Every structure is written in structure tokens, then in C-alpha cells.
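Subject: Sanity check before I submit

Could someone independently write out the C-alpha cells for this chain? I want to compare against mine line by line before I put it in a report. The sequence has 406 residues.
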Amino acid sequence: MTPAEQLKDSVLALASQAHRDDGLTALRKRALKQLQLLPFPEKRHEAWKYTGLNALTAGQLENAAAPVHQSADVPALGDCVIVIGNGFLPEQLPTLPDGLSALLLSDNEAAEVTPDTLFGWLNSASLSGGLLLKTERNRKVAGIVHVVFCNQSDAPCHASNRLQVELAEGSELTLIEHYLGSGPVLANAMTRILAGANSKLTHYRLQSESADSLHIGNLQIDQQRDSRVDSSQLMRGNVLRRNDVHVRMLESGATLAMRGVFIARDKSHIDNHINVEHVAPHCHSDQVYKGIAGEKGRAVFNGRIHIHPYAKGSDAALSNNNMLLSNEAEIDSKPELEIYNDDVKCAHGTTMGKMDPAQLFYLRSRGIDEGTATRMLGTGFVNETLLAMADEAVRDWAISWLGEAL
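---
Independent answer below. Compare away.
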């Protein structure tokens, strides 16, 4: 039996153990049936060409994580904080701002979820509980809602994290989706965002787990007429990090601004797969991702823009700029355009380079040590992305946190 076949058997066993009668029973059964049909991802599959999953042979797919009390330090970034430990919701939720409700996810709300990867289906099949956030129509939710997924364990295990956000017509919400934790735990995250007509979402996706952890995430965003989504995604490398982001612009007038920063140091790994679909006419999307890799770090970026046949008047742009800090570091970048309509405006590009030695020398000649100089230049490289974030508390935290990685 090959390693991939062994891991597939572990996936099915883990999903089968999660079966129980509650509000998610039907969801788990549907997902388990789908899991049985899917092959385990290998490097021979194009979407996983640069990301091997040998790290999971340590046992992350053999045991489900146990409930855990909050122990990781949670930065003060939001006005309303919800902490979820190893995928288990707290017994009591905090007081929510006006215009927002929080519910336990049930089969009915999760019925339309179609994950893009085997791990997304495993998330559904092994789910212990999910959080559903709903806004009220034509209401602006005050402050920042900070949802923290804290995953930690001393032994290899698997934790399913699930979040669904539904923005009603004309509503506004600022949301931080934050992943914390430590230890050899695999955080298997699935987030689905439904942006209703004329709604506005400011979304921060922060992945700040420790270097010894693992994270595989799936983010799905569906946008309706004249909705706007501003999403900032920040991450540092760990043993294994994979993010699949899938955006569908389903009705005309939708706008997407997506920014990302990823930093891989030491022997860490990061893989980002972004797929933005312009299904309806006259939608606008702009993606800007910046990556840095040092030592033997490995980063992967695959960005895809898909213009459907009826999506005339689409305006889409994708930019991925990268910096290598050592000769052994590696970044693989693959921007893609798939266009089926002539009346569109599309652009994509990627760059790869090293830190300017002249700039580094200038800072060193002014008495600045090499570590500080590297941090200053690296922060300057991603500064455009960080300064575009609207909320000062999140922006200041991000600048400090990413600066530590440099």
C-alpha cells in the first residue's frame, strides 16, 4: 500500500469515527460519501505539484483533537471576541453587537457547501460544530468581530474549524478570522462567506500559528449584486500551510479587493491557490499578493482569473511580487487567465527578485545591524499591502508580527 493510500484510509477512518446524531448528521454523511470517491492528493496531481503531504504521516489524520480551553494569547484586535478551541465552540458566546447574530451551524445552512479539496470534505465529515454569523438587513455592525480558532495539542491530531458568514442585503461587517495555536496539530479550516446584494465586508484572515503546527484551509466567497469584499490574508510559514481560496462573483456590480502577504523562513512551507470567477457581467476584482522566502523556506502561489462567457465588462487584475532572501529559498509562482468573453479588461503578472544589496549596504553603513536592516527592507517590500488595511489596530499588529519573521 502506498503512503497516499494509507493516508486515504486514515481519512476515512477519522471521518467514520466522527459520526453521531445531532444537527450535522446529514452533512457528515454526505461528506463521507464524497470522501470515498476522491483520491488522496499527491504531487502527480497538478494542483498539488509543489506541495507534498508526507508531513501528515506523523499521525495528524489518525486522531481527532480533544476540546481545549483557551490558552494561547489572543491579541486585543476586536470589540467582540469569540474563541473556538480545537474546533469546539464555547458553551456561552459573548454579547454581540446590534445587527449581528451567532448560531450553531446546522445541516440546512451548510447544505450548499461544495469544498474544493479532499480536506474540505474531511472538514465536513469530521465536524464537531460550526459557527454561523448573520447580519441584519441594512444594518452596519459596529466595531470589529474577532473570531479566534485556537488549535493546540502535544500529540499529532486533526481539528476541524468551521465558519459561515451571511451578510444580508445592505449590511456592513468587519471580521477578523484568526488562527492561533501550537504543537503538531493539523488545523483543517473551512470558511464560507455569502455577501448579499449591496453588502460590504472588511475581512482579515490571520494565520499566526507556531512553526511546528500545520494548516490546510479552504475559503469560499460568493458575491451578489453590488456587494464589496475587501479581504486581507496574512500568514507565516510552518510545517505545512495550504490555502485554497475560491471567489464567485455571481451578480453584476460585485467588487473584490484581495491582498495577501506570505513569509516562509527556515524550512517552512506555504502554498496559496486563488481562483476568482467572474460569472456575471460588470464585476471588478483586484488581487495583490507579496511573498518572501528565506533560508530553505518554500512558497507557492497559483492565482487564477476565470472570465465566464456572459461576464462582459469584467475588469480583473492579479499581481504577485516575490523576494528571495537566500539562494536555497524557493518561490513558485503561476498566474493564470482563462477568458471566454472579448469585452473584458484583464491583467496579470509576477516578479521574482532578491533584496537590493545597495540598499542593505546603505543601511549597514548608517550603523544599522544586518538583522534590523533586513527587517526594514522586508517590511518596506510588503508595506503597500499592509497600509491598505483599513483598521489601525490590525495594521499595527500585522506590521509587528510580520516584522518578527524578518
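---
OP: Matches mine. For the report I'm noting this point. The longest helix spans residues 370-387.
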